Predict the structure.
Amino acid sequence: MTERVTITPTHRYRNNDKLIGIGNEFWDMSERNGLAGIVADLDAGVLRAAPGHEFIDAGHEFVNFSCCSYLDLDSHPKVVEGGIEALRRYGVLDHCIARSRVQIPAMLELEDSLGELFGAHVVCSIAASTATFGLLPLIASGHLGNGTRPLMIFDKNAHVSMANLKPVCADETEVVTCGHHDLDYIEDACRRYERVAYVCDGSDSLGGYAPVKELAELQDKYGLLVYYDDSHSLSAYGERGVGYVRSHSPVLDERTIVVVTLNKAFGTSGAAIVLDGYEKETLRVIERFGGALNYSQLLNTPAVGAGLASAEIHRTPELTALQNRLQTNIALFDSLIRTDQAGSTFPIRLVPMSDDTVIEAGRRVFEAGFYVSPVFFPIVARGTAGLRVMMRTGQTEEQIRRLCAVLTQVGARSVTPEPGEVAR
């Protein structure tokens, strides 16, 4: 009998044994403490746990401080009505056919509206991860860019939706990983390689922004291509909510590609690929060969209608008012709790905890009537766990103050030092 071959993984780009083996311990603890798998009903901004979860009493009320709808546009009456109106207008929920074959005008109407908002060409996708799956392999092969296969540098902290594409891109070109926004590493690569593409978050899901101006200098000096996922800053940042990258990068041409989800502060669903300087022929390559970008998985009609309504809000003073209220809430939190993100306009704060205490701390906060996400490996590096707090426009001053009081009870650093404590 022929001996069967045992496969030894290379783990060049991912290691599921490590991710699942360690990560599952934290997720299991989260579930045991009622911090994962929660089912809840929304009522006037307050969530009430629904029946059917063995760790939570039905009717337990809590305020959600772990939601990415930073401007609360997902429940805006105009956005909700926009989805309903589009469904009535077109009379179909999901026109299930590839966009390169046949499509109803709704998607093009949304792309035109978003294109005017961004001042660029926009291609919509069902999700940012879907857009990334379609685009990064085309960058790797040189079909999206200047025709040269680049060295692809993935930022160490790049979101998993991008990092998961490393082995796919590696089938087309050379792939490496650099330290978080390691500009020296990137410039050294630019000196040695004919073409370099850098893949990173424009706004980090754990707080902070990419060094877009410094990267723009490398773009001008070496022709560096930068692929940003700027999902967390869309709508919440910038004039008309165009996000951090498009508000600050001086290089907005074919050397800069930005992907944003519409699910977060924009308040709807789907994603937008924002492209500057690309000819029609290249856009056709994206539509035809960008994987799921051309499958029968387009935004459904209500999502398109809601997106059109949200885009209109972005053109009004109401958006600025919402952004200002969000910043007021962020400043209030920063005046009470010390974090490394304090002072930033970014709406996420990471309250440091140890791996041993983060789940217990999250449970105590939840019992007190607030939900914040415990984050742990592989969401963050081992030893850097914490409670991720997400600020929103609709949170009240009372809710923020009460949450901060609870956070200090579970180990957060107060801005006002306790007796005997030295302020840092």
Remarks:
- The chain has 14 helices and 14 strands.
- The CA atoms of residues 330 and 391 lie 6 Å apart.
- The radius of gyration is 22 Å.
- The first helix runs from residue 16 to 32.
